[in-house]
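Hi support team,

I submitted a single chain yesterday and got back a structure, but I'm not sure I'm reading the token output correctly. Could someone confirm the output below corresponds to the sequence I sent? I've pasted both exactly as they appear in my results page.

Thanks,
R.
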Amino acid sequence: MTDHRRPEVRIVHLTGPAFHALARGNLAAANAVSPVPVSAYFAGPDWRGVWQMRCRQVDEDPASAAWVTGVIWDEPRQLAVGRAGYHGPPDPSGMVEIGYAVEPVHRRRGYARAALEALLRRAADEPRVRTVRVTISPDNLASYQLASQYGFVEIGEQWDDEDGLGIIYEVAAGQL
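Hi R., thanks for writing in. Yes, this is the structure output for that exact sequence:
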């Protein structure tokens, strides 16, 4: 089934206990405490590093849970299709970095775009946010093409021990 309408999604934030369950790969425990049900992919090895990082972050700063990675929730289908959020609350300069990923079985259906738009709307509505950043692997053409449609411009690059080389793109929150 191909549906060309933009999916209706919202980002559902998770709590420390959900992050901990996902970081352990315990789907049953995650679904017992998650505000929405998630699939086995969420608790699988591909995303485990993200959940482990968010565990540490939320343990150190419980308020960051309202900002960091949550569930891309397809409202009409009542289905978790991916993860999206910020790397943390706005930094002192007003910058937030976004990240998103869609489960392989749900890709190419507009979910990444819908999640990006939800994150950009929130950034634009938040007075503390002045700049939105995204870091994209040089070989991820689809993400680059998506970000460029929203005014992101390249400002540099960085090396991350987990993700490797990333090209840094930013857009002013006021331009959204």
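A quick pointer for reading it: The longest helix spans residues 45-60. Let us know if anything else looks off.

Best,
Support desk
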